[in-house]
Amino acid sequence: MASFSAGLTRRRRALFYCHTMKKDNVRIAIAQVNSTVGDLEGNSRKVSQYLNRVKGFGVDIVSFPELMLTGYPPEDLLLKPKFVSDSIDVLKSLARDVGDVVVVVGCVDKDKYGLYNAAAVLYQGKICGVYRKILLPNYGVFDEKRYFSAGSQAKIFRAGDLVFGVNICEDIWHEQGPLAQQAKLGAGLIVNINASPYHAGKVRMRQAILQKQAKAHKVFISYVNLVGGQDELVFDGQSMFISAQGRLITRAEAFKEDLLITDINPGLPGKKPAQATVITQALSLKERAPLPAREIKSLEPEAEVYQALVLGLRDYVVKNGFQKVVVGLSGGVDSALVATLAADALGKENVIAVFMPSHYSSRESQEDARYLAENLGIKFIQVPIEQIYRLYLLVLEPHFMGSERDITEENLQARIRGNLLMAFSNKFGWLVLTTGNKSEMSTGYATLYGDMAGGFAVIKDIPKILVYRLCRYRNSLGFVIPDRVLTKAPTAELKPQQKDSDSLPAYDELDPILKAYIEEDKGISQITSLGYAPETVGKVIAMVDKSEYKRRQAPPGIKITPKAFGKDRRMPITNKYRG
Predict the structure, then answer these.
(1) Which end of the chain has fewer CB within 10 Å, C or N?
(2) Which range of residues forms the domain containing residue 324?
(3) Catalytic-labelled residue, pool 66, 232, 304, 440
(4) 133 catalytically annotated
(5) Same domain for 282 and 309?
(6) Going along 208-336, which residue ranges are E strands?
């Protein structure tokens, strides 16, 4: 068995079974592509481009991701009849241009009973059959029952002597689901198409499930996953082929478009199942050379998360028609990471850093901000806010007379900075990137209409401890973030001698509590049983619960953890339950 990735530079080679093409082998391909929601014509063109690429390799079957033609997730676009009918027209047009390669492509299907998440099987100018997704996820970020009806048939198809099943994403995750039925009907190959969103470490979970399913049902699995960013979601690709013995044959690149091709012998049946939809009585004989081996790559945890953030940021900016972004650079670790991610994602020429010192900003912060900008090669603008701040205080003085200074005066500075960044955005069309991390967003330690003001919250789902780890990882690739940024005590610098620890527990204590409460839904007693003081746990949970109204007004940000704020966690703002 051999495999190939078009255009891949190989540093080391994985070993496969054969280097010569056996006559019973089938050559299958995975087109791991980046589609765009709503770009029906563009997505169809991308399918055609990849079909042209596979022609030279003698491929028999090629698969594209779930809802490839509409983009994923299309959400309420699916409630627009014209969008649905246009997408079906695009599918029909695409089918007419398909030659002697069997194409499996994600699409929508419709009948008088409802709308379906579907996979169309195309061959020689025709739509030969359509599989409708049976198991519709309705948890976490998924909301498919809002839009789709469930399919009812675990269809199989026959191309020559090859019998294969097609199913979609969730259909393959359940041991006695559609895959089991298709295997019993005689399928030796399962083509599974996906739009499986990323969170840290998810590829290992996917691979384990696929290996278990392949081994249990004695089928080869071709697993194609979408790649790219869509609003809060990132799709990591990492498509793969699994042998009927449950062995990983090869895996596609992470966070990049990729073309993956392999030769398999799926155990062609002696009998031709009567239930199979016949695509062709015989696959076309094609001239094809043996395929070279390719590397199976795995990413370290910080590298995986960093690449996810870069891809999610790049696609959000580019797909929404922006070119440049602006970041409020403070000299602290969060804004340093956001600026660095932006430079890596968009190029240094497309990132502007604005440093807005007040009376409380330290000389070290100014030095570190400027040093970072120089290291990254990004434009650096300094706009002092002290005069504006004094004017605010002067205007408010008659109304605040007799009141002690408190967090109100602190937050005025953050809101002035937010206004200035939005002014640059309005004037020059730059997208404002906010710099709040998950620890701050969880506890409300971020200023509404201040440092939360902007268009995209890049590190919204990154806990503070992980922020530091990502900075150190990035410096390991090439030094850009000053050492002092990573060693000084975190501070908002909104009053004299201020430290984050004045208001929050230490981050090495705070972040595990937040994970337990937000991502694992543990209660106070369960969290205190882990060794945390009850008063600390109670304080943290109260801060989280009180800050829901802030999070509802925050810009979207990239999902990295198993449970992110937004689609994953939908808590009521008005809520008296305290557990």
Answers:
(1) C
(2) 302-500
(3) 66
(4) yes
(5) no
(6) 220-225, 227-230, 233-236, 240-242, 248-251, 258-264, 277-280, 325-328
